[in-house]
Amino acid sequence: MKHNPSGLTGFPEYSHQLSARNVAQGLPAPMRAVLGNGGLDQRDLWERETQTLSRPLANLRRRARDFAERELAPHALALDALEHWPVGEQPRELEQLLVKAGTAGWLSDLLTKPLGSGNPLLASQPLTMPAALKVEEFARVCGGQMLLLSANMLGQAPLVLSASPSIIKRRLLPGLRSCLRGEPYLFAFAITEPHAGSDVEDGHGASLSKPRLVANRVPGGWILNGSKVFISGGDVARGFVVFAALEGEGYESWTGFFLESGTPGFRAVRTELKMGMRASGAAELEFIDVFVPDADVVGKVRGGWSLNRQTLNLSRIPVGAMAVGFAQAACDIAINYAKSTMFAGKPLIHEQHVQLTLADAITTTSTIRAHMWAAASRWQVRQSTAAMVKFGATDAAMGVIEQCMDLLGPNALMHENRLEKVWRDCRLTQIFEGTNQINRLAVIEDLQHQFLD
């Protein structure tokens, strides 16, 4: 079929009777009302998917995209290309971002008003759904800045799940209000230990490992000694939930403790030079005779393993949302490239093999988003569900990104085109919150009753 400006090569023009745009016009009016107007609905796919959400969630998604485009996008490439900055320091752009995100409510919206900044109309929603929508839109623009903002939610989650009125009132709420005042108070979640890695996220591995952060009982509280590694945001956080085993016991004795930066004996000693998500630090934390009072035990003594696993069950769904955002970014970049790059006198988008590649990428992205949304909309999140979302979305997103890189060819490797950064950022999602291999085993662990006689 000859190319014409009102349609892509290989397809009928819009006005043609056989065009998909007119597919519904031959139906009776009642059926058109039920089934819609087919191709006459010219909203893009993102907007059509947004329309399937409740109004409060749809508004949240639009607000998140707007904030990401205005505040994250302008600095994404420059921050990624900066030299590694020392622990305790931070680029001015990130300091300003935290203030803007805090006053806009993005650092305190895990809880709805009056406790946090979330829309009260979202109080009936599981914690994971608003978080997933926000994380996806931030990730689509910049993985590093997204992680800086969203790791804060991970640090807050154990405090919420502890259901302790005292620790929520004394430790969580003041931090949320500080953010809203423009004085960022970030939280961090500290579980990973040297030589343990994902063992602290897997029962079998933990049973064979020796804890590296240990708590000793003393009058009025506990003394912590040891270290944690790869703690997202650990270099800039002011509040920490850390998990330590009791002296002489294993990970089954894990207990959560809250402490603040500046506590004697506690400090972030360094951050890693990372391949991706470089705007967010991964810190090593050192504990030398750090005293934590009994009042700052998070949850129950020896209840940390359960608290940790439940936190991961919630957080693995937003990690899947990160991957969806990265896949969407790759699709957007590839589509724009195909529309703007000329081949044989016309845009590359008119080539059928390009259309096939884009169709695969768009479909996979939409599919993992639907899976992630379905899981995020449930109040009760099982380990197997969260793990499937995490490794399913992150592995699929890497495939989408690589498809799009193939389409761009050598241009995919250019920093200015963003796609190689998207690849580096997304690669981390296959590793943190438990490697994807650990998450596959988490599925089998949760469902093992189905495999036994």
Helicity, in percent? 40-55%
Shape: globular
The biggest beta sheet is recorded as:
8 strands, mixed
Number of strands: 10
Strand content: 5-15%
First-to-last CA distance: 60 Å
Number of helices: 14
Q: What is the SS-derived class? A: alpha+beta
Q: Give me the strand/helix succession.
A: HHHHHHHHEHEEEEEEEHEEHHHH
Instruction: Say what oligomer this is.
Output: single chain
**Overall mean pLDDT score?**
92
Low-confidence stretches: none
Radius of gyration: 24 Å
List the SSEs and their pairings.
Elements: H1 29-35, H2 45-50, H3 55-72, H4 76-81, H5 92-103, H6 128-141, H7 143-161, H8 165-180, E1 187-190, H9 203-207, E2 213-218, E3 221-232, E4 239-246, E5 255-260, E6 266-271, E7 282-293, E8 297-298, H10 304-340, E9 342-343, E10 346-347, H11 352-376, H12 383-408, H13 419-427, H14 436-447
Parallel strand pairs: 1-4, 2-4
Antiparallel strand pairs: 2-3, 3-7, 4-5, 5-8, 6-7, 9-10
Describe the structure.
The protein is of the alpha+beta class and 453 residues long. The mean pLDDT is 92. Strand 2 and strand 3 form a beta hairpin. The chain contains 14 helices and 10 strands. Strands 1, 2, 3, 4, 5, 6, 7 and 8 form an 8-stranded mixed sheet that branches. It has a two-stranded antiparallel sheet with strand order 9-10. Helices cover 47% and strands 13% of the residues. It is globular, with a radius of gyration of 24 Å.
